[in-house]
Amino acid sequence: MIILTIRTDSPEAEIGLFDGQKELAYKKWQAHRQLAETIHQKIEKLLKSQQKDWQDIEGIVAFKGPGSFTGLRIGLSVANALAASLGIPIVGTDNEDWIGSGLSALSGAQNEGVIMPEYGSPVHITAPKK
Description:
Blueprint: E1 2-7, E2 12-19, E3 22-30, H1 35-49, E4 59-63, H2 69-86, E5 90-93, H3 98-107
Helix pairs in contact: 1-2
């Protein structure tokens, strides 16, 4: 089972490609404010480095927080959209061994359908002026 892992809770983004529990490739980069512009390119490059294509992805593990509001929102939007469009399972984890626990959950046929971010504190939204 080819699994894509995504972590975007900080300025350093991370993506990985696994075959079951075996790591095939892993990439970290300083995404900062370019995450939305770079994440798809980085995933495609990672896939091509392993002679894989988008359709080869059979599951997704995403880090759901806590972390940066915008980073989590972008990463989880990408993860959820890929899972929905490819019709594959997705799990979200929030612990130190997020990859290991996510891979175990997928191997146990777990599927959360949609991953919601956990920011670590309530989101502060400014009230409309009128």
